[in-house]
Design brief:
Blueprint lengths: L20 E14 L5 E12 L1 H6 E6 L3 E6 L8
Antiparallel strand pairs: 1-2, 3-4
Length: about 80
């Protein structure tokens, strides 16, 4: 459950879906579950992370192996005038 901004330096509480940016990360949980027909399938793990408006303007979330979710500055894109 998302309760606050994913930026550790920010304490803005999550209140509404229309504010900020919501991220979804899906991964295999490493657990197999039996289906009714005798077949097994890998269970998926879905996690949600949220950045508040202020943080989403300047940052994004990335997944780093061995570290997990990390807050990184957004890439600056230049536009033609």
């Amino acid at each position: 459950m998302v309760s606050k901004c994913a930026n550790p330096a920010c304490s803005t509480p999550f209140l509404y879906f229309h504010q900020g940016k919501l991220f979804r990360r899906e991964s295999a949980a490493g657990i197999e579950a039996a289906e009714g027909n005798g077949k097994k399938r890998a269970m998926r793990n879905i996690e949600f992370f949220w950045l508040c408006n202020d943080c989403a303007d300047k940052m994004t979330l990335t997944f780093e192996e061995g570290v997990g979710i990390a807050v990184r500055p957004r890439a600056v894109t230049e536009t033609a005038a």
